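User: Can you predict the 3D structure of SMI1 / KNR4 family (SUKH-1)? Sequence below.
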Amino acid sequence: MPDWKTLVDQHHSMAHPDGEYNLVTGPPASDETLANLETALGFKLPPEFRSFYSSLDGFGIASADDPSDVSWFFRPCGQIDQFSNDVREWFKETHERCAKRFFPFIDWLNGDGIGYMLDESGDPIDGVFEFNHELYKFDSAQDVNEFLRHVPAGIQDFLSIS
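Assistant: Sure. Here are the predicted structure tokens for SMI1 / KNR4 family (SUKH-1):
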């Protein structure tokens, strides 16, 4: 598996080249934490997710002025269930079946999220999906693909290109 810490360091350097924000990483998630998350979410986490979170239980940024105020980009395991619920709230009334199958764990800090989408049988679809609240119209006739975009990349690729 990849060296997640190095990938996160490189991602942070690309995203914040001026050094304005400090990188904050969570300690490795335990097997018990990951099992509890699977139970809460109701599906088996993909191997890449388990590998990443077994190395770092999320990462985010904090200013030098207040290092305790962390804006989590990859949410820690203990926040993923609630974060998923918060993002799904946007469209669950108009696209309930789709909302029930979407599990974001990456937080753009603006109402948008990126995460896994389950197929009809309950298995994660390869890649990740990005919810864009600005494209969502609160209209049940809207095509879900207009506001929920499939990104055919895993976590490793995502960190390298975003």
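DSSP finds six helices and seven strands in the chain. The chain has a mean pLDDT of 94.
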